[in-house]
Amino acid sequence: MSLKVLKIGGSATLQGAPQPGRRHFGVPTGGAFDQESLALGNALLGNAPDALALELTLMGGMFLAEAPLTLSLVGAVGLVSVGGRRLAPQSRFGLETGERLEVGAFEAGVRAYLCVQGGWGGHAGEAVFYGSELQSPRRANLDLSPAVLATTLVSLKSAPLRYVPEPDLPSGVVAQAESHVGSVELDSDRRGVRLAGFPPPQLEERASEPVVPGTIQWTPGGGLLILGPDGPTIGGYRRLGFLCGADMGRVGQLGVGEHVAIAAISLDEARAITQGWRDRLEARCRMLRLSARA
């Protein structure tokens, strides 16, 4: 079962769950930037939450079904159509052999996940280009009717990004950072999202240290860098703190020029918020998978 790529508008890679365990070799964890959209897109099809999906960034593309397929597209919102028929956002739909799926530029968010029943074959992180053929190991269940997510994605909501400040920052530095509103810079990608408008404080330099996705650093150019899933494993910039895990998907959906504020919270608050977000996401996915398999 395959889907041929006729056009790709932005970057496109196969992504699933993060792959930890190789950071000591300098290999980032990778994985979908917006894990919420990945999990919900897979749940609409009855898949495991981390089944491989095609992460489309900034723009979609055009695809030709070479066999009947049942797909879902969840995440950033744009014009999506099959054979000229417009599809609802955040939905599950079918393609007959020879039908074309067209995904236009995204108008809200920057990353959407194209999932298929059973998950795509291939390797996590694999780039997809014009002429690529995405393979699905399963024949489509043609009895699976179209469906739409009923609620708004957390990752597309607008609110200050919550973070836990570095514990040894001098008093006043956190308040100074929070007094600014930044904007997303053009050179943002899966390695990290850059925010202009956060002047770095006068702090002594430190030796490079291990860093993880969600680490927030001041850059010498006068902004913040929030490390993404493909970010470095060692960093030398001075750290402001660490992003709340529940907000990572929102960072992955930030578009160039979008205004961003930050808000400090405690470590206990970050843990409680992230656990609550995970619990709610798992419950939604469980209900969607049961519905898909009914």
Helical fraction? 10-25%
Average the pLDDT over all residues and give the rounded result: 93
What is the succession of H and E elements? EEHEEEEEEEEEHEEEEEEEHEEH
Structural class: alpha+beta
Shape by Cα distribution: elongated
Low-confidence stretches: none
Counting DSSP H or I runs of 4 or more residues, the number of helices is 4
Task: Return Rg in Å.
Answer: 20 Å
Total strand segments: 20
Beginning-to-end CA distance, first to last residue: 23 Å
Strand coverage percent: 35-45%
Could you describe the 3D structure shown?
The protein is an alpha+beta fold and 294 residues long. It is 16% helix and 35% strand. Strands 1, 2, 3, 4, 5, 6, 7, 8, 9 and 10 form a ten-stranded antiparallel beta sheet that branches. An eight-stranded mixed beta sheet has the order 19-12-13-16-15-18-11-20. A hairpin with a 7-residue loop joins β12 and β13. The longest helix has 27 residues, at 267-293. It is elongated, with a radius of gyration of 20 Å. The mean pLDDT is 93.
Q: What characteristics describe this protein?
A:
294 residues, alpha+beta, 10-stranded antiparallel sheet, 8-stranded mixed sheet, 4 helices, 35% strand
In short:
With 294 residues, this protein is α+β, with helices and mostly antiparallel strands.
